[in-house]
Hints:
Elements: H1 2-25, H2 27-32, H3 41-59, H4 65-88, H5 97-116
Amino acid sequence: xxxxxxxxxxxxxxxxxxxxxxxxxxxxxxxxxxxxxxxxxxxxxxxxxxxxxxxxxxxxxxxxxxxxxxxxxxxxxxxxxxxxxxxxxxxxxxxxxxxxxxxxxxxxxxxxxxxxxxxxxxxxx
Length: 125
């Protein structure tokens, strides 16, 4: 199980680093899904991208990984309003309505994935 958890942590880190990088490669996408009630759209997109990259990297450092996993959970909760906004305004990203709907529980799956990495390694007796 320990090996599976290590692979999972690595995959989550790669996912976070890749997602964060996309904030710089394609900021227009993230700007489109920013709810209008939030200020400083461009700055928030860039800051969230930096946070995703940093948390992904920290997840790979054993001493920091549990704290990084909690940070990922907090970040996923913080960006959830953008997913809700996208669901409410599906014309922003044309796709089947079910695709937009499935993005919402996917956020919960990502949170559970990160939560698994907040738990200490199980020790064999």
